[in-house]
Amino acid sequence: MADILIYLETAQSSDGAALKKPAAEVATAGRALADALGGRLVAVITGSVAPEGVLGRHGVDEVLHVEGDAFGRHLLDAQAAALEAAMADVEPASVLLAATVLGKELSAFVAGRTGRALISDATSVGADGTQVVASKPKYAGKAMAQIAATRPSIVSLRPNAVPAAENPREAATRTLAVEAPAARVRLREVVPSAETQLELTEADIIVSGGRGIGGPDAWDEILGLASALGAAHGASRAVVDAGWRPHAEQVGQTGKTVSPKLYVACGISGAIQHLAGMSSSKVIVAVNKDPEAPIFKVADYGIVGDVHDVLPMLSEAAGSFLAG
Ligand SMILES: Cc1cc2nc3c(=O)[nH]c(=O)nc-3n(C[C@H](O)[C@H](O)[C@H](O)COP(=O)(O)OP(=O)(O)OC[C@H]3O[C@@H](n4cnc5c(N)ncnc54)[C@H](O)[C@@H]3O)c2cc1C
């Protein structure tokens, strides 16, 4: 029992299904863990995605493909049936998947049904002898917990926490026949969001705004800087509660957890509930007119100033820097 199984999420688009960005990160972490335990790396994917090529590049030895209409959508029962069938086939030491909305739900559901240990939202995973160990931030990033699984485990990995690396090999593909479970829910309609912005949890750069932006009319300053940096844009809860921005953009304890390479917090005080969602960002830049604002305690770079002065200057500088 040294093999590692990874569950790779797909996204639907007008061009069909494709692997989501964290797939390469999960494969990279899975490859390293399989090597440490002396096992193989097996991936399970569902639906109509064409797995050839992509996965072998990131170190997958074998791909188990669960086909069929029932598995093409993110319905929990069907995805759990596919994952559990793959687990029965591979008997892995550990299952890795991305800590996305689906990944968190699926990992908890399947861990409960199979009695596996669950480590959720880990920022790294490795082995100590034959034991799977992982670390994850606690208390809004003030402490790191090191967790060892004392039995076969499921680990969800925070997107953007493990950089994807290439480790090319020939990946064999096998179709895994799985009976679709009786549907307890039926998907009636998918309504695409009007916003086409990059998914926050997968973005490399995020520009977020807080109450200090002053109102929805001034949000163009956030969008302008985000556009100049090629970034996604987020918001604090105060902004979402005020109805300035949709909840899908909220970062924090009751919003999304993000780990971008660069997080720019504008007019955000840095309440602990906001930090809980972004303090594992690699580089944090804060813009706030209050030099005592708590956000400066976690920021790598701080700009004390009025957002309405600073953001246009940053947008212009970013635009000319990236152009030149
Ligand atoms: C159970 C629970 C869950 C929560 N979950 C979340 C969550 O998921 N995400 C989240 O964000 N919050 C969450 N909160 C709310 C959190 O406690 C804060 O209330 C919220 O983060 C504050 O948002 P803010 O920083 O935008 O606003 P404020 O705290 O009002 O801060 C505004 C900041 O803008 C600065 N400012 C004002 N004007 C300007 C200007 N012109 N230029 C520059 N700076 C300026 C001010 O100095 C201040 O620091 C939660 C709270 C609870 C109790």
Topology of this protein?
Layout: E1 4-7, E2 10-13, E3 16-19, H1 22-37, E4 41-46, H2 54-57, E5 62-66, H3 76-90, E6 94-98, H4 101-114, E7 117-122, E8 124-128, E9 131-138, E10 143-148, E11 153-157, E12 172-175, E13 205-209, H5 220-229, E14 232-235, H6 237-241, E15 262-266, H7 272-278, E16 283-288, H8 295-298, E17 301-304, H9 307-323
Parallel strand pairs: 1-4, 1-6, 4-5, 5-12, 6-11, 7-11, 13-14, 13-15, 15-16, 16-17
Antiparallel strand pairs: 2-3, 8-9, 9-10
Helix pairs in contact: 3-4, 5-9
This protein binds flavin-adenine dinucleotide (FAD).
Describe the structure.
The chain has 2 domains: about 170 residues, Rossmann fold (3-Layer(aba) Sandwich), CATH 3.40.50; about 120 residues, TPP-binding domain (Rossmann fold), CATH 3.40.50.1220. It has a 7-stranded parallel β-sheet, with helices on both faces. The protein has a 5-stranded parallel β-sheet with strand order 14-13-15-16-17. The protein has a 3-stranded antiparallel β-sheet with strand order 8-9-10. About 30% of the residues lie in helices and about 25% in strands. Helix 5 runs parallel beside helix 9. It has about 325 residues and is of the alpha/beta class. The structure holds flavin-adenine dinucleotide. The site of flavin-adenine dinucleotide has 27 residues, from helix 6, helix 7 and helix 9.
List keywords for this structure.
single chain, 324 residues, alpha/beta, Rossmann fold, seven-stranded parallel beta sheet, binds flavin-adenine dinucleotide
